[in-house]
Amino acid sequence: MPYLSGKETVKELRRALSNPNIQSDPLRYRNTVLKVIRAMSQGVDVSDLFSEMVKACATVDVVQKKLVYVFLCCYAHLNPELSLLVVNTLRKDCLDPNPMVRSLALRSMTNLRLPSLVEYVEQPLTAGLRDRAACVRRVAVLGWAKLHNLQPGSEIDGAVVNELYSLLRDPDPVVMVNCLRALEEVLKDEGGVVINKPITHHLLNRLKECDTWGQSEVLRVLQRYRPQSEDELFDILSLLDSSLVSPHPPVMAATLSLFLSLCSSLPAVSQAALERVRGPLLAACGSGSREMRFTALCHIQLLLRSIPGLLGEHYKRFFCSYAEPAYIKRRKMQVLVELVNDENVVMILDELKGYCTDVNTDTAQTAISAIGRIGQSYSDKCLEILTGLLGLKQDQITSAVVQTIRDLVWACPQCSDAVSSALEGCEEVLQDSQGRQALLWLLGAYGERISSSPYTLEAFIDGVRSETSMELKMELLTSTMRLFLCRPAETQDMLGRLLHYCIEEERDMCVRGQALLYYRLLQRGIAETRNVLQLRRSDPSMGVLIGRPAEPFSQWVSSFNTLEPLKHCSVEVESTSRGSPEHLASIPKSNADLPDDLDCRQLEMVHLGSDGAAQRLGCPAGLPAPGAEPSVTLSLSPAVTPEEFERLWTQRRASRSEQESADEGDDGTWIEDTIRCGAVPHCSPQSLHAAMQLVNIQTLAFTPSHSLPWKVFLYTHTWRADASCSTLVLGELLYAGELNPKRPAEGETEGNEQTQATADGDKDVKVTLRQQPHDVSALRVFLSVLTTVLHTLSSEVESE
């Protein structure tokens, strides 16, 4: 047929469909109908041919019937009155001896989607449920779901529901799965299909007969069932064991989701199931389908939240290939960050270093951010890579590196010395506002260590009139003020010029308001300015925590095998496009494990050394009684690196073995004490870390909870109001008792006094402290604060 417009095409097709010569020739008639369908698929409106196509459905040619039914289902809603002419033909076809014709007629009747035809469809659907052909029963079962969806407010006959329940035992597995789907739709208002013990075991025994998606549907529905006994639970788990290692990812994921749902009270079984799916998960990560790989990576991130070392030996499987899209590379790098340990850190960092120069900007920035995340535990190796990337002198790479370095020194202040020497000349390469904003923050925070910081800031100030970013102007104001406090002679003139411009010429009210604030602050004096602009060089909510706490399965099991992991990343690589870190640190972070009523007011940190405070907190054994002591405060700065802590702690051990009798010396002192708070090891590491941060005690390292022996290493600095010097206090908490002590039953007699004493001893946490230089009163203050925090956490855990 030559090319014609839409209207001409319809006229030509109408003439052909009405031509008696074509109608008498079955092959030509079928080809004409095929041309109508082709024109419809090309977007031509052929709804005017509805009456001619209704006549064409009266044929014995099955192919022609399929084509006509496709047309009728597409345009029936535009011609509801003419659609009544098709009902008789469809009902007649439902009685055809050919099962394909019967199933085709039933499917077409339900796909017409006309409420006026419902009364004509019910009887053929009821008959189709009892049809001897499986293909007809499949269509009839789903037809009832379509009928209910067409009229959701109507009630379906109870006999039909009973018939659908009976078809759950149909010999055809597709009919069985379709019945589950239909009952889910029909009984949606009642909670879906009812799953009892006979149905559960019947579905499990026939699970292998279903196809991949049928098995997934059955396993999803079975999550509602709860076994009545432990023996039944393990019988069900035995039936599911083979599906847990299925080569089909949908079946494996649905089985694991059912496993975790059934074993919510058996964490050991859940962990064994997660270890068994390592192979199928790794196979899914190597699938040829990009969508399958992405989904598998998202679910792997969920599993790593509970078992961080689950795939540690297979970290090379998450190396990125060149042809992979950026979104898959990003997820793989997020997984690599979680798999880092002492054995593979060098290999992973070398691999990430190669991604930093990727042609895709997002991939390169994600790799640099991943190196920064790893740097919180392996700072030396990561800083070497980051400073090497600065030497490439590329705008996008330099910007991402400077932002990552800013985040790294915020989390790990001990890296500041190495960073200060690497920032020279970066301002010449940086072009984007986010990178320059990060550089300004670093210049304000560590300007006294960077020799060229005043000259760098002066270049920014000279070009402030052409600057369009409001955030960068505000950061420039803050950084210049901070640098003025430590290097006033070099910064005074440029600060005056900057304040004059921002107050007199700047049009942005936010920038002008901040400049006025700093100007009036300077009028109050340098001491007041220093108190307001005193920079926190580290995030008090972050520390160099060795190890990653494992989350319980219950926190994410409900989102497993859903779209939720695809929308939200479980462990995000920190974004490099954000403002100054202290601005975000001021936003409180929610922590479900941290007690809401942790009251530290009784510590009275300002006057903790007074008599009243000492009487409330008590005096630990082995220390002198508190007298009229000057006020003592605790501080987190200067920071202590893990290496320095280990050196000082090892030195304390060595000195103790050499001089056992000398508890105190000129260079320091150490004590050992016990605190009765046996529930503290059950507290999550996040809660312990956050509680210590509230009173300016830094948690440096810890062992995982629910493991023996349980240890925590911490430190702080004590400052006295009457002295300019400070003392460093290193501490170790050690708990070697039982994690799950057995409680006596009600009415059961207690043991003898010696047994009771032994049980009470299991609740003691041993505290070992090392102080340098020697200051007993400050040490007593620290131990009192530590005792109060541990008692508060222990009481919260015991009350849960």
TrEMBL record:
Domain of life: Eukaryota
Keyword list, A-Z: Membrane, Protein transport, Transport
Region annotated Disordered, chain positions: 650-669, 741-765
Keyword presence, Membrane: yes
Listed GO CC annotations: clathrin adaptor complex; endomembrane system
Topology versus the membrane: Peripheral membrane protein
Presence of keyword Transmembrane: no
GO biological process: intracellular protein transport; vesicle-mediated transport
Main location per the UniProt record: membrane
Comp. bias regions, Acidic residues: 660-669
Bias (Basic and acidic residues) ranges: 650-659
Subcellular location: Endomembrane system
Residue span, Beta-adaptin appendage C-terminal subdomain domain: 634-791
Family listed: Belongs to the adaptor complexes large subunit family.
Name the record gives this protein: Adaptor related protein complex 4 subunit beta 1
Species per Swiss-Prot/TrEMBL record: Xiphophorus maculatus
The organism's taxonomic lineage, starting at the top: Eukaryota, Metazoa, Chordata, Craniata, Vertebrata
